[in-house]
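User: Predict the complex with S-adenosyl-L-homocysteine.
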Amino acid sequence: MSASLSEIIKRRISQLGPMDVGEYMALCLSHPDHGYYMTRDPFGSQGDFTTAPEISQLFGEMIGVWMADAWIKLGSPGPFALVECGPGRGTLMADIMRATAKVPGFREAARIHLMEISPVLKAKQAEMLSAYSPVWIDDLEGVPADMPVLLVGNEFFDALPVRQLERRNGQWLERVIGLGEGDVLAWGVKDADPHILAALPERILKDGADGIYETPVPINHFVKSLSNILLKQRGAALFLDYGYSKSKAGDSLQAIRSHRFVDVFDTPGASDLTVHVDFENVRRVAERNGAVYVGPVTQAEFLRAMGIEIRAERLAANADVTQGDSLRAGLLRLIDTSVPESMGALFKVCALCHDESFKPAGFP
Ligand code: SAH
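Assistant: Here is the predicted structure with S-adenosyl-L-homocysteine placed in the model:
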Protein backbone atom coordinates (compact mmCIF):
# COMPACT_ATOMS: atom_id res chain seq x y z
CA MET A 1 0.00 0.00 0.00
CA SER A 2 1.29 3.47 -0.78
CA ALA A 3 2.26 5.85 2.04
CA SER A 4 -0.40 8.16 3.48
CA LEU A 5 0.01 11.92 3.10
CA SER A 6 0.78 12.15 6.82
CA GLU A 7 3.70 9.71 6.36
CA ILE A 8 4.89 11.57 3.25
CA ILE A 9 4.88 14.90 5.12
CA LYS A 10 6.68 13.47 8.14
CA ARG A 11 9.33 11.85 5.97
CA ARG A 12 9.89 15.13 4.18
CA ILE A 13 10.28 16.98 7.47
CA SER A 14 12.73 14.44 8.85
CA GLN A 15 14.80 14.64 5.65
CA LEU A 16 14.63 18.36 4.87
CA GLY A 17 13.69 19.99 8.19
CA PRO A 18 10.54 21.88 9.20
CA MET A 19 8.26 23.07 6.37
CA ASP A 20 6.53 26.43 6.08
CA VAL A 21 2.74 26.66 6.31
CA GLY A 22 2.45 27.34 2.56
CA GLU A 23 4.16 24.08 1.68
CA TYR A 24 1.97 22.19 4.17
CA MET A 25 -1.22 23.73 2.73
CA ALA A 26 -0.11 23.02 -0.84
CA LEU A 27 0.60 19.35 -0.04
CA CYS A 28 -2.69 18.89 1.84
CA LEU A 29 -4.77 20.49 -0.92
CA SER A 30 -2.99 19.55 -4.12
CA HIS A 31 -0.65 16.58 -3.64
CA PRO A 32 -1.26 14.65 -6.91
CA ASP A 33 -2.37 11.41 -5.16
CA HIS A 34 -3.63 12.51 -1.75
CA GLY A 35 -4.45 16.24 -2.02
CA TYR A 36 -7.89 17.22 -0.78
CA TYR A 37 -9.06 18.76 -4.06
CA MET A 38 -7.41 16.09 -6.21
CA THR A 39 -9.42 13.21 -4.86
CA ARG A 40 -13.02 14.30 -4.33
CA ASP A 41 -16.01 16.56 -4.97
CA PRO A 42 -16.19 18.37 -1.64
CA PHE A 43 -19.47 20.26 -2.08
CA GLY A 44 -22.99 19.87 -0.79
CA SER A 45 -24.68 18.43 2.28
CA GLN A 46 -22.95 15.04 1.76
CA GLY A 47 -19.62 16.80 1.33
CA ASP A 48 -17.56 19.10 3.50
CA PHE A 49 -18.88 22.57 2.72
CA THR A 50 -21.34 24.55 0.59
CA THR A 51 -20.65 27.61 -1.54
CA ALA A 52 -22.83 30.49 -2.77
CA PRO A 53 -23.43 29.12 -6.31
CA GLU A 54 -24.51 25.80 -4.79
CA ILE A 55 -26.90 27.56 -2.39
CA SER A 56 -28.90 29.50 -4.98
CA GLN A 57 -29.06 30.13 -8.73
CA LEU A 58 -29.58 33.81 -7.83
CA PHE A 59 -25.88 34.14 -7.02
CA GLY A 60 -24.66 33.12 -10.48
CA GLU A 61 -27.36 35.18 -12.13
CA MET A 62 -26.08 38.32 -10.41
CA ILE A 63 -22.53 37.50 -11.51
CA GLY A 64 -23.93 37.03 -15.03
CA VAL A 65 -25.50 40.49 -14.92
CA TRP A 66 -22.15 41.88 -13.70
CA MET A 67 -20.34 40.17 -16.60
CA ALA A 68 -22.81 41.39 -19.22
CA ASP A 69 -22.57 44.95 -17.89
CA ALA A 70 -18.75 44.80 -17.90
CA TRP A 71 -18.72 43.38 -21.43
CA ILE A 72 -20.96 46.19 -22.70
CA LYS A 73 -18.75 48.76 -20.91
CA LEU A 74 -15.78 47.31 -22.80
CA GLY A 75 -17.64 47.98 -26.07
CA SER A 76 -19.06 44.46 -26.51
CA PRO A 77 -15.80 42.97 -27.82
CA GLY A 78 -15.99 39.74 -29.79
CA PRO A 79 -14.15 37.56 -28.94
CA PHE A 80 -13.30 37.99 -25.25
CA ALA A 81 -11.93 35.56 -22.64
CA LEU A 82 -14.45 34.66 -19.95
CA VAL A 83 -12.25 33.15 -17.25
CA GLU A 84 -13.21 31.43 -14.01
CA CYS A 85 -10.66 30.48 -11.39
CA GLY A 86 -11.52 27.49 -9.20
CA PRO A 87 -14.90 26.75 -10.85
CA GLY A 88 -15.90 23.92 -8.47
CA ARG A 89 -18.75 21.95 -10.02
CA GLY A 90 -19.19 24.49 -12.85
CA THR A 91 -22.46 25.74 -11.38
CA LEU A 92 -21.49 29.41 -11.28
CA MET A 93 -20.39 29.44 -14.94
CA ALA A 94 -23.55 27.58 -16.00
CA ASP A 95 -25.68 30.20 -14.20
CA ILE A 96 -23.66 33.05 -15.74
CA MET A 97 -24.28 31.63 -19.22
CA ARG A 98 -27.98 31.08 -18.53
CA ALA A 99 -28.39 34.62 -17.16
CA THR A 100 -26.64 36.16 -20.17
CA ALA A 101 -28.37 34.03 -22.82
CA LYS A 102 -30.53 36.96 -23.90
CA VAL A 103 -27.70 39.52 -24.09
CA PRO A 104 -27.23 39.79 -27.88
CA GLY A 105 -23.76 38.64 -28.92
CA PHE A 106 -22.42 37.77 -25.44
CA ARG A 107 -22.52 34.01 -25.73
CA GLU A 108 -21.02 33.99 -29.24
CA ALA A 109 -18.20 36.28 -28.10
CA ALA A 110 -17.33 34.44 -24.87
CA ARG A 111 -14.31 32.10 -24.94
CA ILE A 112 -14.68 30.21 -21.67
CA HIS A 113 -11.45 29.36 -19.85
CA LEU A 114 -11.49 27.41 -16.60
CA MET A 115 -8.49 27.46 -14.29
CA GLU A 116 -8.82 24.30 -12.25
CA ILE A 117 -6.40 22.01 -10.46
CA SER A 118 -8.67 19.06 -9.59
CA PRO A 119 -9.20 16.21 -12.08
CA VAL A 120 -12.42 15.23 -10.28
CA LEU A 121 -13.87 18.74 -10.55
CA LYS A 122 -12.65 19.18 -14.15
CA ALA A 123 -14.78 16.15 -15.05
CA LYS A 124 -17.83 17.70 -13.32
CA GLN A 125 -17.24 21.01 -15.11
CA ALA A 126 -16.93 19.23 -18.47
CA GLU A 127 -20.33 17.64 -17.89
CA MET A 128 -22.00 20.83 -16.68
CA LEU A 129 -20.58 23.11 -19.38
CA SER A 130 -20.38 20.84 -22.43
CA ALA A 131 -22.64 23.20 -24.42
CA TYR A 132 -20.04 25.98 -24.28
CA SER A 133 -16.79 24.16 -25.27
CA PRO A 134 -14.70 25.43 -22.35
CA VAL A 135 -10.91 25.26 -22.35
CA TRP A 136 -9.01 24.28 -19.17
CA ILE A 137 -5.91 26.17 -18.16
CA ASP A 138 -3.33 25.61 -15.39
CA ASP A 139 -2.52 29.24 -14.73
CA LEU A 140 -2.99 32.73 -16.16
CA GLU A 141 -0.42 32.03 -18.88
CA GLY A 142 -3.14 29.97 -20.53
CA VAL A 143 -5.41 33.00 -20.99
CA PRO A 144 -5.45 34.08 -24.67
CA ALA A 145 -3.20 37.12 -25.09
CA ASP A 146 -5.09 38.83 -27.90
CA MET A 147 -8.50 39.70 -26.44
CA PRO A 148 -10.09 41.51 -23.47
CA VAL A 149 -10.58 39.47 -20.31
CA LEU A 150 -13.42 39.17 -17.82
CA LEU A 151 -12.57 36.94 -14.87
CA VAL A 152 -14.35 35.70 -11.76
CA GLY A 153 -13.18 33.77 -8.70
CA ASN A 154 -15.58 32.73 -5.95
CA GLU A 155 -13.85 31.15 -2.97
CA PHE A 156 -10.70 30.79 -5.06
CA PHE A 157 -8.23 32.91 -3.07
CA ASP A 158 -9.07 31.19 0.23
CA ALA A 159 -7.78 27.90 -1.18
CA LEU A 160 -4.33 29.27 -2.02
CA PRO A 161 -1.50 28.70 0.48
CA VAL A 162 -0.24 31.39 2.85
CA ARG A 163 2.94 31.66 4.88
CA GLN A 164 2.60 32.74 8.47
CA LEU A 165 4.96 35.35 9.86
CA GLU A 166 5.02 35.98 13.55
CA ARG A 167 6.11 39.03 15.48
CA ARG A 168 7.26 38.05 18.99
CA ASN A 169 8.60 40.73 21.31
CA GLY A 170 9.29 42.89 18.29
CA GLN A 171 11.28 40.16 16.50
CA TRP A 172 10.09 38.67 13.18
CA LEU A 173 9.88 34.88 12.88
CA GLU A 174 8.11 32.47 10.53
CA ARG A 175 5.83 29.70 11.77
CA VAL A 176 6.83 26.25 10.55
CA ILE A 177 5.67 22.68 10.98
CA GLY A 178 8.09 20.14 12.42
CA LEU A 179 8.00 16.88 14.34
CA GLY A 180 7.31 16.85 18.05
CA GLU A 181 7.70 14.11 20.62
CA GLY A 182 6.18 10.83 19.49
CA ASP A 183 6.68 11.77 15.82
CA VAL A 184 3.57 13.98 15.61
CA LEU A 185 3.28 17.20 13.59
CA ALA A 186 4.06 20.21 15.80
CA TRP A 187 4.35 23.98 15.45
CA GLY A 188 7.70 25.70 15.55
CA VAL A 189 9.36 28.90 14.33
CA LYS A 190 12.40 29.88 12.30
CA ASP A 191 13.94 33.25 11.42
CA ALA A 192 11.79 35.17 8.95
CA ASP A 193 13.02 35.38 5.36
CA PRO A 194 13.41 39.14 4.56
CA HIS A 195 12.03 38.51 1.08
CA ILE A 196 8.77 37.09 2.48
CA LEU A 197 8.55 39.80 5.17
CA ALA A 198 8.78 42.51 2.51
CA ALA A 199 5.24 41.67 1.34
CA LEU A 200 3.74 43.00 4.59
CA PRO A 201 2.64 46.66 4.71
CA GLU A 202 5.10 49.21 6.08
CA ARG A 203 2.90 50.14 9.01
CA ILE A 204 2.84 46.55 10.24
CA LEU A 205 6.57 45.98 9.74
CA LYS A 206 7.30 49.15 11.70
CA ASP A 207 4.66 49.30 14.42
CA GLY A 208 2.59 46.12 14.18
CA ALA A 209 1.46 44.49 17.42
CA ASP A 210 2.91 41.11 18.32
CA GLY A 211 0.96 38.34 16.56
CA ILE A 212 0.70 36.19 13.44
CA TYR A 213 0.51 37.84 10.01
CA GLU A 214 -0.35 35.82 6.92
CA THR A 215 1.15 36.45 3.53
CA PRO A 216 -0.22 34.68 0.44
CA VAL A 217 2.72 34.21 -1.94
CA PRO A 218 0.66 32.53 -4.75
CA ILE A 219 -2.08 35.21 -4.55
CA ASN A 220 0.57 37.89 -4.90
CA HIS A 221 1.97 36.22 -8.04
CA PHE A 222 -1.53 35.74 -9.40
CA VAL A 223 -2.65 39.35 -8.81
CA LYS A 224 0.56 40.64 -10.38
CA SER A 225 0.09 38.55 -13.56
CA LEU A 226 -3.60 39.40 -13.70
CA SER A 227 -2.89 43.12 -13.38
CA ASN A 228 -0.45 42.90 -16.28
CA ILE A 229 -3.01 41.05 -18.41
CA LEU A 230 -5.78 43.55 -17.65
CA LEU A 231 -3.55 46.52 -18.46
CA LYS A 232 -2.40 44.98 -21.74
CA GLN A 233 -5.66 43.48 -22.94
CA ARG A 234 -8.28 45.52 -21.05
CA GLY A 235 -10.92 43.97 -18.84
CA ALA A 236 -11.98 43.36 -15.27
CA ALA A 237 -11.98 40.71 -12.56
CA LEU A 238 -14.34 40.01 -9.68
CA PHE A 239 -13.38 38.18 -6.48
CA LEU A 240 -15.73 37.04 -3.75
CA ASP A 241 -14.36 35.43 -0.63
CA TYR A 242 -14.41 35.37 3.13
CA GLY A 243 -11.89 37.66 4.61
CA TYR A 244 -11.08 41.04 6.03
CA SER A 245 -10.80 44.50 4.50
CA LYS A 246 -7.62 45.65 6.24
CA SER A 247 -4.37 43.75 6.85
CA LYS A 248 -4.18 42.69 10.50
CA ALA A 249 -2.78 40.08 12.85
CA GLY A 250 -4.48 36.70 13.18
CA ASP A 251 -4.06 33.01 12.44
CA SER A 252 -6.95 32.25 10.05
CA LEU A 253 -5.84 28.80 8.90
CA GLN A 254 -8.72 26.40 9.36
CA ALA A 255 -9.61 22.82 8.46
CA ILE A 256 -13.18 21.80 7.66
CA ARG A 257 -14.56 18.29 7.27
CA SER A 258 -18.27 17.38 7.02
CA HIS A 259 -19.27 20.98 7.81
CA ARG A 260 -17.23 21.01 11.07
CA PHE A 261 -13.90 22.53 12.10
CA VAL A 262 -11.16 19.98 12.80
CA ASP A 263 -7.49 20.34 13.82
CA VAL A 264 -5.28 21.41 10.90
CA PHE A 265 -2.92 18.50 11.63
CA ASP A 266 -5.71 15.93 11.70
CA THR A 267 -5.35 13.44 8.79
CA PRO A 268 -3.64 15.70 6.20
CA GLY A 269 -5.45 15.69 2.84
CA ALA A 270 -8.80 14.62 4.33
CA SER A 271 -10.17 18.08 5.14
CA ASP A 272 -10.41 21.40 3.35
CA LEU A 273 -7.68 23.76 4.54
CA THR A 274 -8.45 27.42 3.95
CA VAL A 275 -7.52 30.89 5.15
CA HIS A 276 -9.33 34.20 5.29
CA VAL A 277 -8.40 36.56 2.48
CA ASP A 278 -6.62 39.85 3.23
CA PHE A 279 -8.31 42.22 0.76
CA GLU A 280 -5.97 45.10 1.56
CA ASN A 281 -3.11 42.90 0.43
CA VAL A 282 -4.88 42.25 -2.89
CA ARG A 283 -5.29 46.02 -3.26
CA ARG A 284 -1.60 46.67 -2.52
CA VAL A 285 -0.36 44.16 -5.09
CA ALA A 286 -2.85 45.27 -7.77
CA GLU A 287 -2.08 48.96 -7.36
CA ARG A 288 1.67 48.36 -7.27
CA ASN A 289 1.22 46.73 -10.68
CA GLY A 290 -0.88 49.51 -12.16
CA ALA A 291 -4.36 47.96 -11.95
CA VAL A 292 -7.35 49.77 -10.48
CA TYR A 293 -8.81 48.16 -7.34
CA VAL A 294 -12.47 48.70 -6.44
CA GLY A 295 -14.04 47.71 -3.11
CA PRO A 296 -14.21 45.81 -0.94
CA VAL A 297 -17.91 45.77 -0.11
CA THR A 298 -19.71 42.98 1.73
CA GLN A 299 -21.41 40.25 -0.30
CA ALA A 300 -24.78 41.54 0.97
CA GLU A 301 -24.06 45.06 -0.30
CA PHE A 302 -22.80 43.77 -3.64
CA LEU A 303 -25.70 41.39 -4.31
CA ARG A 304 -28.29 43.98 -3.25
CA ALA A 305 -26.71 46.57 -5.53
CA MET A 306 -26.90 44.02 -8.36
CA GLY A 307 -30.65 43.68 -7.78
CA ILE A 308 -30.81 40.23 -6.20
CA GLU A 309 -33.94 40.98 -4.15
CA ILE A 310 -35.95 42.16 -7.16
CA ARG A 311 -34.83 39.12 -9.14
CA ALA A 312 -35.82 36.77 -6.30
CA GLU A 313 -39.28 38.32 -6.01
CA ARG A 314 -39.81 38.11 -9.76
CA LEU A 315 -38.85 34.42 -9.80
CA ALA A 316 -40.92 33.67 -6.68
CA ALA A 317 -44.00 35.25 -8.24
CA ASN A 318 -43.91 32.65 -11.01
CA ALA A 319 -42.98 29.69 -8.81
CA ASP A 320 -45.02 27.31 -6.66
CA VAL A 321 -44.99 27.68 -2.87
CA THR A 322 -42.15 25.22 -2.25
CA GLN A 323 -39.95 26.77 -4.95
CA GLY A 324 -40.77 30.27 -3.67
CA ASP A 325 -39.80 29.31 -0.13
CA SER A 326 -36.55 27.77 -1.27
CA LEU A 327 -35.72 30.87 -3.37
CA ARG A 328 -36.31 33.13 -0.37
CA ALA A 329 -34.29 30.85 1.94
CA GLY A 330 -31.38 30.90 -0.52
CA LEU A 331 -31.59 34.68 -0.87
CA LEU A 332 -31.64 35.11 2.89
CA ARG A 333 -28.55 32.97 3.32
CA LEU A 334 -26.59 34.84 0.65
CA ILE A 335 -27.34 38.31 2.02
CA ASP A 336 -27.69 37.51 5.72
CA THR A 337 -25.69 39.88 7.95
CA SER A 338 -27.20 39.00 11.33
CA VAL A 339 -23.88 37.87 12.86
CA PRO A 340 -20.32 38.60 11.67
CA GLU A 341 -20.00 34.98 10.46
CA SER A 342 -23.11 35.27 8.24
CA MET A 343 -22.35 34.95 4.57
CA GLY A 344 -23.54 38.43 3.63
CA ALA A 345 -21.15 40.02 6.14
CA LEU A 346 -18.15 37.70 6.25
CA PHE A 347 -17.79 37.52 2.47
CA LYS A 348 -16.26 40.55 0.77
CA VAL A 349 -16.23 41.46 -2.91
CA CYS A 350 -13.60 43.39 -4.86
CA ALA A 351 -12.93 44.11 -8.50
CA LEU A 352 -9.77 44.82 -10.48
CA CYS A 353 -9.96 46.78 -13.73
CA HIS A 354 -7.63 48.20 -16.33
CA ASP A 355 -8.72 51.80 -15.98
CA GLU A 356 -10.26 54.35 -13.55
CA SER A 357 -13.00 55.15 -16.04
CA PHE A 358 -14.25 51.56 -15.97
CA LYS A 359 -16.88 51.56 -13.25
CA PRO A 360 -17.80 47.97 -12.40
CA ALA A 361 -21.41 47.36 -11.35
CA GLY A 362 -22.30 46.56 -7.75
CA PHE A 363 -19.93 49.00 -6.04
CA PRO A 364 -20.79 52.47 -4.68
N1 SAH B 1 -15.89 28.57 -7.09
C1 SAH B 1 -16.48 27.32 -6.68
C2 SAH B 1 -15.51 26.41 -5.91
C3 SAH B 1 -14.77 26.99 -4.73
S1 SAH B 1 -13.71 25.80 -3.94
C4 SAH B 1 -17.74 27.58 -5.88
O1 SAH B 1 -17.94 28.72 -5.49
O2 SAH B 1 -18.51 26.65 -5.66
C5 SAH B 1 -12.13 26.13 -4.65
C6 SAH B 1 -11.96 25.75 -6.07
O3 SAH B 1 -10.63 26.12 -6.46
C7 SAH B 1 -12.08 24.27 -6.40
O4 SAH B 1 -12.63 24.14 -7.69
C8 SAH B 1 -10.62 23.83 -6.36
O5 SAH B 1 -10.39 22.60 -7.00
C9 SAH B 1 -9.97 24.99 -7.03
N2 SAH B 1 -8.53 25.18 -6.77
C10 SAH B 1 -7.90 25.10 -5.58
N3 SAH B 1 -6.59 25.40 -5.71
C11 SAH B 1 -6.41 25.71 -7.02
C12 SAH B 1 -5.28 26.11 -7.79
N4 SAH B 1 -4.08 26.26 -7.24
N5 SAH B 1 -5.46 26.36 -9.10
C13 SAH B 1 -6.68 26.21 -9.69
N6 SAH B 1 -7.77 25.83 -9.00
C14 SAH B 1 -7.64 25.58 -7.70
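The radius of gyration is 21 Å.
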